[in-house]
Specification:
- By secondary structure, the chain is of the alpha+beta class.
- Helix content is 35%, strand content 16%.
- It is built from two helices and two strands, in the order βαβα.
- Helix 1 links the parallel strand 1 and strand 2.
- It is elongated.
- The N and C termini lie far apart (33 Å).
- 14% of the residues are buried.
């Protein structure tokens, strides 16, 4: 599935989930597959709600 996203590999990519744990895993997977600019939202949606 990551291969289908190769056209995005040079774009800024933000990954978010509810708590931040899964998005961190997903962001690392993208980095491992050649994505250059990937960020995971620390704390996820729950963390954003705290702001």
């Amino acid at each position: 599935m990551v291969g289908q996203l190769n056209w995005l590999s040079s774009k800024d990519t933000v990954v978010i989930c509810q708590s931040g744990k899964r998005s961190a895993i997903g962001a690392q997977l993208l980095l491992d597959h050649g994505f250059a600019r990937v960020w995971s939202v620390k704390g996820g949606i729950e963390g954003v709600k705290q702001i």
